[in-house]
Write a structure and sequence with these properties.
Layout: E1 8-12, E2 15-21, E3 27-33, H1 40-50, E4 61-67, E5 70-76, H2 84-87, H3 94-97, H4 101-121, E6 125-127, E7 136-138, E8 144-146, E9 153-155, E10 161-162, E11 167-169, H5 176-179, E12 186-187, H6 188-204, H7 221-230, H8 243-259, H9 270-278, E13 305-307
Antiparallel strand pairs: 1-2, 2-3, 3-5, 4-5, 6-9, 7-8, 10-12, 11-13
Helix pairs in contact: 4-6, 4-8, 4-9, 6-8, 7-8
Keywords: ATP-binding, Glycoprotein, Kinase, Membrane, Nucleotide-binding, Serine/threonine-protein kinase, Signal, Transferase, Transmembrane, Transmembrane helix
Main location: membrane
Biased composition (Polar residues): 295-309
């Protein structure tokens, strides 16, 4: 299928991803997990959960291999790869890959619709727990698809809060209640926080927490952009060339700032997020200022990890 793994698409902490071709000519992405006896639960979890899904904004699992220590997942092939390749200014290829604001907006709406399906469209609610640019894949038309369900959890029945022994997700995107229960219960609102942090990175073209910037006030992007919105100042963002672009950026920012509220009950549902994004800018109110800053990024946040408390 992969011609002896000749065409490598990417590498992560889990293993490598290779381009393959089925006998009917259909291209696939084969995610080969590192050979070990660990993470079997995560692998089986991903197969079990994603096989329940069918949505235009959720990546399609076409098959899998589970033979002793050998494990692989076979997905539909996404020609444009993952979202992070297109949004961070430090990426040397960004000059060739800069996405317009209309495209960024459509991607944000598509991801929200995928999350809405997971939260409300399945027969059981699915919580993803790791929404971030690396886990959003783009097809040839830049239609976004949520991928990587290794940390996902099924929420039985109508329960909104679930019990969880440890924190799960990626540093910099995790909701505060996921790593500290004093902030509230873990629920579908934790995915909303992930989503908000990701969209702010799409808007800013940078990591939300960045110690390399010149001005101290810019280190934590959500606080910096909140002040700009609050004072109705120029946004100072790259690529704003029209009034329509500026309206799109403001809408994405205001919605994202609601999503990253510290109190889970203050965050909108994902259906409300879709309504806000697709509604008028004039109908949106500015949220209270999110008072938490992102924890400093470390080398472990480049890959998904489950952390014990």
């Amino acid at each position: 299928m992969t011609n002896s793994f000749k065409d490598k698409l990417g590498q992560g902490g889990y293993g490598g991803v290779y381009k393959g071709k089925l006998q009917d000519g259909c291209f696939v992405a084969v995610k080969v997990l590192k050979e070990s006896k660990g993470n079997v639960e995560e692998f089986l979890n991903e197969v079990a959960i994603i096989s329940r899904t069918s949505h235009v904004n959720i990546v399609t699992l076409m098959g899998f291999c589970f033979e002793e220590s050998k494990r692989a997942l076979i997905y539909e092939f996404m020609p444009n790869g993952s979202l992070e390749k297109f949004i961070y200014k430090e990426n040397p290829l960004i000059a060739d890959r800069q996405l317009g604001w209309e495209t960024l907006y459509k991607i944000a709406v598509g991801i929200a619709r995928g999350l809405e399906y997971l939260h409300r469209g399945c027969n059981t609610r699915i919580l993803h727990f790791d929404i971030k640019p690396h886990n959003i894949l783009l097809d040839e038309n830049f239609c976004p698809k949520i991928s990587d369900f290794g940390l996902a959890r099924i929420c039985p029945g109508e329960e909104s809060v679930i019990s969880m022994l440890g924190a799960r997700g990626t540093v910099g995107y995790m909701a505060p209640e996921v790593f500290c229960r004093n902030f509230g219960g873990v629920s579908h609102k934790s995915d909303i926080y992930n989503y908000g942090m990701m969209v702010l990175e799409m808007v800013g073209g940078r990591k939300n927490f960045d110690v390399s910037v010149d001005c101290v006030s810019e280190i934590y992007f959500p606080h910096w952009i909140y002040k700009r919105i609050e004072l109705d100042e120029e946004l100072g963002l790259q690529g704003l060339i029209s009034k329509e672009d500026e309206e799109i950026a403001k809408k994405m920012i205001i919605v994202s700032l609601w999503c990253i509220q510290t109190d889970p009950s203050s965050r909108p549902s994902i259906s409300k997020v879709v309504d806000m994004l697709e509604g008028s800018l004039d109908s949106l109110q500015i949220s209270p200022k999110p008072f938490l800053s992102s924890p400093p990024r470390t080398t472990v946040d480049s890959s998904t990890a489950t952390m014990s408390l």
